Amino acid sequence: xxxxxxxxxxxxxxxxxxxxxxxxxxxxxxxxxxxxxxxxxxxxxxxxxxxxxxxxxxxxxxxxxxxxxxxxxxxxxxxxxxxxxxxxxxxxxxxxxxxxxxxxxxxxxxxxxxx
Amino acid sequence: xxxxxxxxxxxxxxxxxxxxxxxxxxxxxxxxxxxxxxxxxxxxxxxxxxxxxxxxxxxxxxxxxxxxxxxxxxxxxxxxxxxxxxxxxxxxxxxx
Amino acid sequence: xxxxxxxxxxxxxxxxxxxxxxxxxxxxxxxxxxxxxxxxxxxxxxxxxxxxxxxxxxxxxxxxxxxxxxxxxxxxxxxxxxxxxxxxxxxxxxxxxxxxxxxxxxxxxxxxxxxxxxxxxxxxxxxxxxxxx
Lengths: 115, 96, 133
Hints:
By secondary structure, chain A is mainly alpha-helical. Chain A is built from five helices and two strands; from the N terminus they run E-E-H-H-H-H-H. Chain A folds into two domains: 6-40, Dissimilatory Siroheme-sulfite Reductase, Chain: A, domain 1 (2-Layer Sandwich), CATH 3.30.1420; 47-105, DsrC protein, C-terminal domain (Arc Repressor Mutant, subunit A, Orthogonal Bundle), CATH 1.10.10.
């Protein structure tokens, strides 16, 4: 079970986060929550970010799991085309770790198959 | 050539069947833990698919009171023999 | 699809993979199946070539029409659907296990290759690393 470590306030709602900053309850997610989580990290979400977050949410909807890096690249390639379906492109959008940062912002659990 | 290790009693007949499908002509089966019961003469049918290429770990058979009751078709192997077997076969696979 | 479901001919060579995972347990009743698939996914996420062999009650993992348990417990069907996203495309099924359970490839949610006992034996012997769940 995920435990709450802290909360952030988004549009007057208290949103519970786990120790690694992922949502405790996935149902809490709204686009405004993603914006708030991103601005905490000093990121502004562009249209390019949003289309990847949409791919991530679709992936979770379909497979009930957040993807590791390889399947994320494959899913982005299928949805957004060859040019964007590359790890370099995703690393530019979400430096550090696209699979982990993207899952967090998209309101998914931490990907379990990527260490 | 493959050494198969099996640790469940013959009442898990589905496991014995799955193992038999993967068992090759140069393979060997070592019965350990509860699989020792398969070496009783009354359980001979459970080992029929393995062509007599079967050993049982004597320490595990002894602790279950089975020494002296086992089928002559199954060779007794002690821990040192177990180690020697794993060295003889390039690959081993555990079934549980 | 029809080709995938054909039985493996006796003389077809079987290339070694980095990892073969044998799945023998059905969904929902224990965590064996989920753990086995997890291991396969982790290996694939790290770029290893991975194949799955369904034997015994493991073939029930592939049955079409699975869903969450009555209390909302996650099944493994979504995890199996995800295999292709991890490029795990070699799925072998024991033909005898399927027959013994009254199933045919048409009952399964993914295209698979059926293995009779001789081909199954060759597959297992061709693999340097096999894990059983």
